[in-house]
Amino acid sequence: MSEEVAVGKEVLSHCNKCKLPLAHIIVNMKTKTTIGKVTCKTCDATHVYKDPSKVRAKKKATGTRKRKATDSIADLWLEAVSKSEGQEKPYSPKAEFTTGDIIDHSKFGPGVVEKCFDGNKIEVIFRHEIKILMHKL
Ligand SMILES: [Zn+2]
């Protein structure tokens, strides 16, 4: 690609007013190869050139961070399932479970027993939530 950048040429820049990558006309140059200011062909505003690919990259980074926070239980669940060597058992409050067992729950789906406590309670990691269930009833 031999794209020439010079005053008066058209360039794709992120527009602060339109909040979109749009065609701009180069007003001046910082150096021979670095664009200085540009005028938006859509709203006529003159501002500093902003590389649209860099603007988009920033937005993507914040999106990934947000998604990770909400996926933490799913991550925990995935790790527990892959580590577990227990037999998959359908959940029933009358059955007995031990740490590491995989429970097939009719409502919550597959879960892994994280710990047993209070004699008849189990903490189970399901895909979307961690639940305390009863057993040995
Ligand atoms: Zn604009």
Task: Looking at this protein, list some descriptive labels.
23% helix; single chain; binds zinc ion; alpha+beta; 5-stranded mixed beta sheet; 2 domains
Structural description of this entry:
This protein is an alpha+beta fold and 137 residues long. The protein folds into 2 domains: 10-69, no CATH class; 72-134, no CATH class. It is built from 2 helices and 9 strands. The protein has helices at residues 52-70, 72-83; strands at 10-15, 20-26, 37-40, 46-48, 88-90, 102-105, 109-117, 121-126, 130-134. Strands 5-6-7-8-9 form a 5-stranded mixed β-sheet. A 4-stranded antiparallel β-sheet has the order 1-2-3-4, with no helix packed on it. Strand 8 and strand 9 form a beta hairpin. The protein is rod-shaped, with a radius of gyration of 28 Å. The model has no long low-confidence stretch (mean pLDDT 88). The chain binds zinc ion. Zinc ion binds next to loops.
Total beta-strand segments: 9
Give the count of helical stretches. 2
Q: Strand order across the biggest sheet?
A: 5-6-7-8-9
N-end to C-end Cα span = 73 Å
Beta-strand content bin:
25-35%
Let me know the average pLDDT: 88
Please describe the biggest sheet, giving its number of strands, its sense, and whether it closes into a barrel.
5 strands, mixed
N-to-C order of helices and strands? EEEEHHEEEEE
* Overall 3D shape: rod-shaped
* Bound compounds: zinc ion
How many domain regions? Answer: 2
Rg, Cα atoms, Å: 28 Å
Helix content range: 10-25%
Q: Which secondary-structure class do the elements indicate?
A: alpha+beta
Detail the poorly predicted runs: none
